[in-house]
Amino acid sequence: MALFVAKRLLMALATVLVVAVLAFLLVHAMPGSPGAVSLGAGASQDAIDQLNQQLGWNDPLFSQFFRWLGDAVQGNLGVSLIDGRSVSADLADRLPVTASLAAGATVLSAIIGIALGVTAAVRGGLLDQIIGGFVGLLVALPAFWVGIILVYLLAVQSSVFPATGYVPFEVSPQDWALSLALPVITLAVGGAAFIARQTRASMLEALQQEHIRTLRATATPTWKILYIHALRYASLPIVAGIALQFIGLFGGSVIAEQLFAMPGLGQAVQTSVSTHDAPAVQGVVVIATVVVVAVNLVLELATKFLDPKLRAS
Amino acid sequence: MIPSVAPAPADADQTASTTSAAAPRRRAGKAAPTKASRYRLFASPGAVAGLLWLAALVVASLTAPLWLPFKTEDQDFTAVLSGPTAAHLLGTDELGRDILSRIFAAAAGTLGTSLITVIVGVGLGTLLAMAAAGAERTEAVISRITEVMMSLPGTVIILAVIGAVGTNIPLIMAILGILMSAGIYRVVLGQAKSLQSQLYVDAAKVDGLSPVGISVRHVLPGLANTIVVQAALIFAVGMLIQAGLAFIGFGPPLPQPSWGGMIQGASQHVYDAPWMMVPTGAVLALTVLSANAIGNALGKAPNAAAPHLPSAAARRHRAQAVAAIAAAPAPKDADAQEAPGNGTLSVRNLSVGVDNGVGLVTGVSFDVAPGTVLGLVGESGCGKTMTALSLLGLLPSGVSVSGGQILWNGRNLAAATDKDMEGIRGRDIALISQEPMRALDPMFTVGYQLTAAIRRLRGMGKAEARSEARNLLEKVGIVDAQRILKTYPHQISGGMAQRVAIALALSGQPRLLVADEPTTALDVTVQAEILSLLRALVKDTGMSVVMVTHDLGVVADICDQVAVMYAGQVVENGKTAAILDNPRHPYTLALLAADPHANDADNMPERLATIQGQVPQPKDWPTGCRFAARCQFAGSACKDPVPLLASGTGEGLVRCVKADQLAVEGMDWLATDVPAARLLPISSQHTTAAHQHTTVIEKDLA
Fold first, then answer.
1. By the 8 A CB rule, do B331 and B325 touch?
2. Among B253, B339, B520, B557, whose CB has the most other CB atoms within 10 angstroms?
3. Nearest CA in chain A to B505
């Protein structure tokens, strides 16, 4: 087990490193030198050249990368070309927004998805078909469109929730929750549908296992067969599905943040890409990767822990 | 925003309609794969509607310049932000542009660029899977890489790419395809590997076909359906992502319309023109829905196995069937009236059938007295297991008792509700099944499973149940019971697992044990141990056993009584010794003649007999003798229904019009002529075809 964890940790580290190199190369392929981006359209070529020299733009690529990596390891992701703010500080402010959004959406999708999927598999018949149709519809709806509809219904028509904006938890936990509600629901619609399908399929597969018959042959109550034994068996693929969903939802936050004007990582990617703010793009790509890879690692270890075969070895 | 596409075809449908796909239908359902998938596609109304919608969209958008009422950039300032009107069927946007025209003008681009993602993603994913399926080392490398790819925040990376290359949509969709190929690889790999491990692929390798040749000729065709399914699903995902990108401002360069961009525009007017977001959103959702419907229809698992615990809907259905049986008047014939003594199982005229009407077991009767063992013998597909499972009310979904009685302690179990059966199962009648490893829950320890059953069935406390569990394990011959209690099923051997399964069956101190081929999956030496364990248990506890087997050695070893089953009927029954020494039915004769162990070493025949052909499908059962088609002695008298009659040996019964004649003439089942093809080094074509029809029965009986 320890060896397994060590291996996975190493893999995770390698993943982040590969992405860092990739992000670095992509950022270098962006149109416009950092000097030009930073000084804006009116700047003279001399000033641009001078700033580029100062930023080390003309150094060999690998020395630039290792300088960046050395700084990054110490928590310094450079300075924004646009407003001169520290990228690390900016992202540190933004991470909680996206993290609450993605975590909230993942938890909500998991709860709704598992409930729907289990119900469909266990009840069967007409209810199964209704849930199946409903889930199929949810999968096809674009998240941003769902978001607008929600805004229209719950914020414009009846002002239950604020239409846009984000209130930090420290300011007011209640407003924080209210401000998160619509974006979280928006993201969870598709996520819940995905997890519902995964859960239904896994539950049905679990119920096809022969040990279910043994349980019935020893007079195990139906609820216990369903919710202790079958759900336990189905939990492995369900947790794996949730892990995949978290990755999707973390990325999906770009849309939710844009739609609901939330100052999160997604908004940072969107603006920094639009403005060609190289250090900001690079920083946010790496931070997003670190978060996603870390959460994935934890959930993967959880899956392994759920499986007695892997736990023992 | 990049939905995870890995285990995509999760919508495999096993609802009520397909659960009735019980044993016979499942076997019948094997058609050519392409035919089946086309059938599935057109059988689903959603998929047909989806195909029509996509086709209409493509045609409408390609011919758009010919019929669209407005150019995409025509601005009508008299009708800004209008709802649907006669002039603007779907309304206008903030610049007075016609929404209908813009939707259809944008369609071709959206569909076309999404196709790029499909081609790159599915193509690359399939290629990687085929490469990996062929070589283990390649697989390790590719799987690692795809694992990494799947754990990346795809959206953020795509945005960074946009930063570098700009909003070059085809290029971005291609890169998206690369990112998504990892998920497709995972889906396709499993199937490619199983195709790659087929014997005919091995044969092709020996023939010197190159790995690429094998992939193209033998693996790729088998993947076709999966590839199409994935393509449809990825197409849908591609459209959603593309629209999402356009929504956050990374769509095709303005003023070119795009669906995502139009929804973005609409979102600015939620307050003053909420209508605006409806048409575009609906078209996008419909298109995605269409692609998904096609993918799901094709990906639907055609032969889904039946669940061992039917869904609530299926259970309600069965409860109605049981109520119907309970309501039916008891048969008047003499032997149904005599109530069996306590502890005797008496099956009367039992019929089991698929819910659509096909019978699997018809008119089966037998008695099992306390402390005796009854063997149900016959080839696969004769209804032995269905008969056995009906005793516990554990028939698979879609199969149920359709008539007759199962009398046990004055009750008719065939008409008992599931709730009533819960009081019988484990306590009165217990089950051990063929594959002990699969019969135990892999997620729980042996100890947990045993103590839970003991507590439930015997009402014991935790500590008491724990020590009883140890006693039981020792009783079934496990020496280090304390250690075994702590293990998981995968940590013990098959023989050990079967001992545990027997202990589990004994945990409720049952008086009848139903054993469904309990030794078939075990090594020969372990088989003997398990049989002697069962024999000892019968002696010690006085319980009776119904033993399903196709091994005549097992019958000779342990059974007091035998019922030989063929095609859903008992064809001969009686005392074991009488039947083995003096078989009367041609099928019994044939089974014995085909069993290598039934013949002594000194009079071992040169060739073992076989039974030509195979057990007919339930739907093909003739009205006359069901064995006639394969019988060496069949005559015209066999065309009429044959009753079970006294065989003349003890209280045995036999279902054969010629039984007496055969007995008088002392005829044996002969080893049939070996087809000439097997004797000659070179076979001619028609004789090999004939040979293929010869089912070699020894294999089944060994």
1. no
2. B557
3. A218
Cβ A218–B281 below 8 Å, yes or no?
no
Residue scoring higher pLDDT (B675 or A272): A272
Q: Where does chain A have alpha helices with state H?
A: 2-28, 34-39, 45-55, 61-73, 87-123, 125-140, 143-150, 173-207, 210-217, 222-224, 231-259, 265-274, 278-306, 308-312
Contact A165, A261 (CB under 8 A): yes
Cβ neighbors of B213 (< 8 A, separation 6 or more) are B204
By the 8 A CB rule, do B565 and B382 touch?
A: yes
Contacts of A232 (CB under 8 A, 6+ apart): B443, B444
Q: Please report which confidence band the pLDDT of residue B32 belongs to, taking 50, 70 and 90 as the band edges.
A: very low
- pLDDT tens for A282-293 read 999 999 999 989
Q: Which of B104, B99, B60, B62 is nearest to B79 (CA)?
A: B99
pTM for this structure?
A: 0.84
The radius of gyration of chain A from alpha carbons, rounded to an integer in Å, stands at 24
Cβ-Cβ contacts under 8 Å, B164 against chain A: 26-27, 29-30
What's the confidence (pLDDT) of residue B266?
Answer: 85
- Distance in angstroms (rounded) separating the CA atoms of residues B39 and B35: 6
Q: How far is B274 from chain A (nearest CA, A)?
A: 7
Structure tokens at A279: 């250090």
Query: What is the structure's pLDDT at B14?
Result: 32
ipTM confidence: 0.89
| Angle at the Cα of A82 from the Cα atoms of A81 and A87, rounded to 5 degrees | 65
With vertex at residue A20, the alpha carbon angle to CA A16 and CA A26, rounded to the nearest 5 degrees, is 140
User: Which of A211, A276, A281, A286 to substitute to test the interface with B, most B CBs within 10 Å?
Assistant: A211
- DSSP category for residue B218: I
- Cis peptide before B65, with omega less than 30 degrees from 0? no
**Would you call B3 an interface residue with chain A, using a CB distance cutoff of 8 Å?**
yes
Coil, strand, or helix at residue B694?
A: strand
pLDDT, one tens digit per residue, over B91-115 is: 777 777 888 888 888 888 889 999 9
pLDDT of residue B334: 45
How far, rounded to the nearest angstrom, does the alpha carbon of residue A60 sit from its chain's CA centroid?
Answer: 34
* Residue B330 DSSP code: P
